[in-house]
Amino acid sequence: MTDATTPTEWVLTISCPDGPGIVSAITGALAARGDNITESQQFGDPTSGLFFLRLQVVSSATREELVAALTPAFEGFGMTWQLDVVGRRMRTLLLVSKAAHCLVDLLYRERSQGMPIDVVGVVGNHPDLADIAAFYGKPFHHIPVTKDTKAEAEDQLRALVEELDVELVVLARYMQILSDQLCRDLAGQVINIHHSFLPSFKGARPYAQAHERGVKLIGATSHYVTGDLDEGPIIEQDVERVDHSRAVADLVAIGEDVERATLARAVRWHAEHRVLLDGRRTVVFR
Amino acid sequence: MTDATTPTEWVLTISCPDGPGIVSAITGALAARGDNITESQQFGDPTSGLFFLRLQVVSSATREELVAALTPAFEGFGMTWQLDVVGRRMRTLLLVSKAAHCLVDLLYRERSQGMPIDVVGVVGNHPDLADIAAFYGKPFHHIPVTKDTKAEAEDQLRALVEELDVELVVLARYMQILSDQLCRDLAGQVINIHHSFLPSFKGARPYAQAHERGVKLIGATSHYVTGDLDEGPIIEQDVERVDHSRAVADLVAIGEDVERATLARAVRWHAEHRVLLDGRRTVVFR
Amino acid sequence: MTDATTPTEWVLTISCPDGPGIVSAITGALAARGDNITESQQFGDPTSGLFFLRLQVVSSATREELVAALTPAFEGFGMTWQLDVVGRRMRTLLLVSKAAHCLVDLLYRERSQGMPIDVVGVVGNHPDLADIAAFYGKPFHHIPVTKDTKAEAEDQLRALVEELDVELVVLARYMQILSDQLCRDLAGQVINIHHSFLPSFKGARPYAQAHERGVKLIGATSHYVTGDLDEGPIIEQDVERVDHSRAVADLVAIGEDVERATLARAVRWHAEHRVLLDGRRTVVFR
Amino acid sequence: MTDATTPTEWVLTISCPDGPGIVSAITGALAARGDNITESQQFGDPTSGLFFLRLQVVSSATREELVAALTPAFEGFGMTWQLDVVGRRMRTLLLVSKAAHCLVDLLYRERSQGMPIDVVGVVGNHPDLADIAAFYGKPFHHIPVTKDTKAEAEDQLRALVEELDVELVVLARYMQILSDQLCRDLAGQVINIHHSFLPSFKGARPYAQAHERGVKLIGATSHYVTGDLDEGPIIEQDVERVDHSRAVADLVAIGEDVERATLARAVRWHAEHRVLLDGRRTVVFR
């Protein structure tokens, strides 16, 4: 994939139990090769006792050579690691229902803003957004979901994920709940946008709840999906100011802007390997 | 207090069941007197069916003359109304515990920023902040509260409110819960600052909860106090961005800035008669 | 267009020299008809001495009947006024070059978010964005502009504006400067988005300037176009936080989000008759 | 000062020409000692070709031992470096005129929020704020400045800086311009708060300018002071939303909140060695 003679920029992410010598072990191995670190961020979480590192390095090594050079560090510190090429587009499947704003936004950013995702397909439980997928040249899969066909629909989804070699699933206002089993199987690979500032207004109709409560800010939360609905690790949140004069429909419209911006940041950071899991929390190296 | 021969700027707030002719009835009565409306805001809440109006008017009338001119409208539409002189400083009692940031901020704004409050006293259930009150020339009342003395302490508080002719009580990080009875007696006159973005993280230790949940924004909520703790009508909310690297102590420090700014806005708007109650919600004419 | 027997919601905007009795004259005339004011905002500018009013009123009158009822007020106070039906979609022409983000955003909001504009055409001085116009079913007019053909191109533009009965022209990242004469002819009808927080970084390459200066926030400004480039009355501004690590290309990408959101708000407010001109400034009744 | 047997947390900042092996040289030297890096941030500026590093390390070494261990790296890469104890309070002199908000805020944060500054004195060219200094137990020096006494006043200031061993001078709304010579002598040690979003509205009366221009956001900028007034490297900026209804006096009051918050962040980051100079720009490791 990458040629040893042309220098490539790699992104390496690591997590392991905290302790002395971690950074030195990694940077020493790279320095010994003469490779140049261009970006580096680290965080030691005193609560979990875990250490997190993300760095970008320019190297003329092949992937195998790099891994070989780093393996003593990986093994010596019991590291969980990922190594990828900077800017490689992550194979992504978008799941939608009827609301278009997040879909339009992500497809636009893929095409025009250099977001490093490669949307390999769009799945809708309704057919409404097929034309938008078509405009961007994306295959659209209509997989309806009813109470009776839910298991079957998930099998189709699962088959698609395998067949298309999907690395990331984005629930872009997909109004179906994934089964616990699917959540577990795709742990850390599914990002959702929830239309409230979690943990406020969990569950259905959050804008109606927000209106009733008379809040002065409405928000959106992008998080990894776990079996525990709306409780997965939070990646990004944002809010917008509203006032008493806004009806529920206004809140929904204003909320759309916050949702798509929040989801877009979460997807970009994930695709750039900037998000690391730290138990129920995330470390985001922006 | 006001002299009929010098024009005074008045602020009038009104709420009543919505219907045609309300604004005309009020503005017609003022126009008939030749008075000039300088500011006006209105809102009809389709949910509650209530209409809200706030206006400022320059008039050479006495208070009695103004009320007389407006009484047909007041009575014809079943209005609840308030009439005050613009800029009159509202007699305010501040309740504190040990945290100084909101106290320092409000006293500073009273003295230097023209916030229209007249702080007639500071009550602390701890003596720690007496020196700050003294610096600003405010009487400090130490009223300790224990489980056994709570009723007695509230009697002292109540006596102080009456004796000092208090119009507004501000819980400036006062770490005691007022009794249901006191809440009812002072309904619409007590403003609290809650150190979270309600309804998230209700109850104790919200910053610890926020840290545990890994939120990316922390917030503060200023609201009227009702018997239902942390559930009173919200006046103002704000947030500040945080990330994974912030410990609970950092969240507390960052939160202080949001708290004092949020509380200051709520107090100012209340003192300027910009906040009207609409059931569980507020109408804020900023 | 509107039927006298079905009540219609109208929006009325007024500006005139400030003085007593203005609001009463208008609301009295409406109350005499039994019409119900549903929204009202006003502002007296002490600097310019002008008074501004925007109100929405539900009435079963025809337009002619309403105007007749209000004419004594209009004439008595020397009012400049506009009367429109709430929600009527304003005939809008979008001018673009190569950057797609504002175009995509406005067309999406017209179709899916109820923004009250009717995009009657898209003009590009480059052909690049024709496919996006086509997807949304909008006629695309390629009008190239060179030094030599500028006058001719403006004639084409002007013809299009007349032929399509255009009420609003939006420069959605249109990288050409309109002639002074065209600016004057379309005064108050042309909205631009400038990719900086004006008055910082006027002129070309604002993101490069912002990078060089090391600013910590980048912004966008939406304003009416006047002959004085980048100096027209400001309608809306917003900013986004950046840091030292952002290259010029990052600032451009981040800026796109601010630009499209800022422009969308300005266009919506204009189309809802919420923006009134006050000399070099605007009054925005949000 | 620090005892070799108790581990101390140090903060090390470095800048040097970019190239391979820098991080490894530093972290390797620390790892060889068994010291644990707890925080680390780096940035390579492709424009200036400079590399910046800030790290915190827990070590039982004395300062001399640490420097000795790092000297080969310092010298090998031509590094400019600083080594300090984390949390050590930086000796700070505050310069003020009549406006109290920044002074009150900084003194409060020093006392109650753990901002790592040690305010060793307050200088006022007016005597107005002496009582606030006194309340916080700070010596107040009244050094009036007139056209004729400016040189003499600066001599007094300079003497104070030396005598009190001042490391940081904060212009907390000090309405005098320092001479070029003094700016040069204290380069990188003087922080100013400018009451606008630079580079907008440079010079005097920025809020009046902002009002006249009708901007929708007002801002503040904290920057290092250089001879080139209002053009020094920017450390932090922030904005607040305003609308047409705000008079100049309102903008000033709203601006005060932005100013004090912006200045406080800049001072904290500087005192924590989070701000590094990169030509006309700053690198801020937040």
UniProtKB/TrEMBL annotation, chains A, B, C, D:
Leading EC class: hydrolase
Biological processes per GO annotation: 'de novo' IMP biosynthetic process; one-carbon metabolic process
Database matches in InterPro entries: ACT-like_dom_sf (IPR045865), ACT_dom (IPR002912), Formyl-FH4-Hydrolase_C (IPR041729), Formyl_transf_N (IPR002376), Formyl_transf_N_sf (IPR036477), PurU (IPR004810), PurU_ACT (IPR044074)
Keywords: Hydrolase, One-carbon metabolism, Purine biosynthesis
A molecular function (GO) term: formyltetrahydrofolate deformylase activity
Pfam families linked to this entry: ACT (PF01842), Formyl_trans_N (PF00551)
Pathway named in the protein's UniProt entry: Purine metabolism; IMP biosynthesis via de novo pathway; formate from 10-formyl-5,6,7,8-tetrahydrofolate: step 1/1
Catalytic site positions: D230
Reaction(s) catalysed by this chain's protein: (6R)-10-formyltetrahydrofolate + H2O = (6S)-5,6,7,8-tetrahydrofolate + formate + H(+)
PROSITE patterns assigned to the protein according to its UniProt record, in alphabetical order: ACT
Gene3D superfamilies: 3.30.70.260, Formyl transferase, N-terminal domain
Enzyme Commission identifier(s): 3.5.1.10
Domain ACT, residue spans: 11-88
Family stated for the protein in its record: Belongs to the PurU family.
NCBIfam families on file: PRK06027.1 (NF004684), PurU (TIGR00655)
Annotated function: Catalyzes the hydrolysis of 10-formyltetrahydrofolate (formyl-FH4) to formate and tetrahydrofolate (FH4).
Xref: HAMAP family: PurU
Protein name, per record: Formyltetrahydrofolate deformylase
